[in-house]
Prior knowledge:
Keywords: Iron, Metal-binding
Cofactor: Fe cation
Number of strands: 26
Protein name: Pirin
Radius of gyration: 19 Å
Order of helices and strands: EEEEEEEEEEEEEEEEEEEEEEEEEEH
Shape: globular
Helix content: under 10%
Domain Pirin C-terminal: 197-295
Largest sheet: 9 strands, antiparallel
Mean pLDDT: 91
CATH class: Mainly Beta
Distance between the termini: 29 Å
GO molecular function, one term: metal ion binding
CATH superfamily: Jelly Rolls
Number of helices: 1
Strand content: 35-45%
Amino acid sequence: MSNTEDAPGERTVCYGPLVSPAEDELLWPRQVPLGGPRGMLVRRVLPNRYRRMVGPWCFVDSYGPADIADAPGMQVPPHPHTGLQTVSWLLDGEVLHRDSLGSDQLIRPGELNLMTAGNGIAHSEESPAPARRHRSVLHGIQLWVALPAADRHGAAGFEHHAELPTLSTADANVTVIMGELAGLASPATAYSPLVAAEVALPDGGELRQPVDAEFEHAVLKLSGRLRVDGNKLADGSMLYLAPGRTEVRIDSNGPGRALLLGGRPFTEKLVMWWNFVGRSHEEIVQARVDWEHERAGATDSRFGVVHGYAGAALPAPELPQVTLRPRGRSTH
């Protein structure tokens, strides 16, 4: 997924109060139109004003459930990425992914699309055309994982995992999307110690999930009426949980779903601008130059061409008139 803001800056403006001092933090999302001012609205909770990352997770969008029966739905033209992995996860609906490696993959609920940008890749995302009878509801999440220095200039890659390990009990169903949890390991490629898992709870369900005390964690509310360690969450909001805890407790009044994220605190400082993750202003400037040259028809391809999308590629926004500076995972 792209950050399609016309003037993407380093600023993020939404945050919540500390739930318990210096430990847990309630993060509120801001609404961003996806695909331009008239595009579908998404709830962006990371990066946040004071909390930019959870482990290596540096970008978290959630969207829907949206009625797209008589609407285009998701329409994100070809755009570039560097220095990250994109993680696409659906709760309802379908999204068609195409990229410059030649991938053409329809993603459905419970399936993982994982794209590794490395030094550069381009992709598009769209609700299937009416001829393919796209489903009337779209509900999902999009996340970015920052690649560590040793891997961020590597080759691009794409993975689709239709089957993932799942733990089912009377009180919860847990699907391990990336990393390891409860003795289950996802087949998805990861470059940092991390975890991502969807938690589905029935009415009155409660999950007491053991977690790695070296990780920082966060729980993103996806649907229902959920509480995390006794704290009520609104749709698209996220509760940050500091390292040191060995258990996360989630309970639900009615059926509900949440996303558990975590990872070892990411110590490298990042420059995040538009769809690029780098380490310096100069890197971002060069990535923008390379993308604009390719859009103009240059043949020395860094990002490659996405075939099959019925429309033009996204132009890169103008850079701000200030130097982009590397920033750490939080301001605390």
